[in-house]
Amino acid sequence: MKIKTPFDNGFTLVELLVVIAIIAILAGMLLPALKGAKNKAHESACLSSLRQINLQITSYEMDNAGTYPVAGMVSSWGDGTGWMNLISTNASDYKIYRCPVEKKRDFSYSLNCREPFARTDPPAHSSWRRVELDRAKNPSALILVEESSNTWFATNDCDQDNYTQNVNSFMTPEPNHEGERVPMLYLDGHCEAERSFDVNRMTYFTDVMKPWE
After folding, report:
1. Is 210 contained in some domain?
2. First and final CA of the chain: distance in angstroms?
């Protein structure tokens, strides 16, 4: 009696190996695409969070006579201080302030306060006012909130700012996003994930195009 083998139904060993090789090649081509799609989804979620933050900042400014929230010292969630606590509308908002791929911290975003800090004498914690921002030469270039480097700030700090240090995450040792892209919210409300600081279209100041200094 002849014993059937798996190859009696039409497949030879060589053909089976060829099929396996083709599947491996296709998988190798597909996996990078899937990874890219996943990274893009994370980036989109981060930009969506920044848009929600913009709505909250705008609402706070309108309720406070044109004054923006003040970033102070290290604040913890729910203690009533710090710009994230000030603009939040409910306790679950902390989810908005954390990048979906954040690896180290509970909060991921920094409020640009460099100009208000520098213009006070002596320099002190301060905030923007609508009348000042209305005079901005290029609202679409003025950075309002950015994803900060995960090498800065305490794990639970929900009051991140750039008063005295450049905190953006360009070239950070462990970037949150593929390609070291940095999600940013601009004064005019639009959001983008930037690959590098471009002085021709980005600034931290109302009257001049320049990087943090």
Report:
1. no
2. 87
**Is 91 inside any structural domain?**
yes
Any domain includes 47? yes
pLDDT in tens, 143-187: 999 999 888 888 999 999 998 888 887 766 666 776 678 899 999
- Structurally, the chain folds into a number of domains equal to 1
Question: For the residues of 13-60, what is the DSSP string, one character each?
Answer: HHHHHHHHHHHHHHHHHHHHHHHHHHHHHHHHHHHHHHHHHHHHHHHH
C-alpha to C-alpha distance for 23 and 28, rounded to whole angstroms: 9
Tell me the whole-structure pTM to 2 decimals: 0.80
Q: Per the domain annotation, does 2 fall within a domain?
A: no
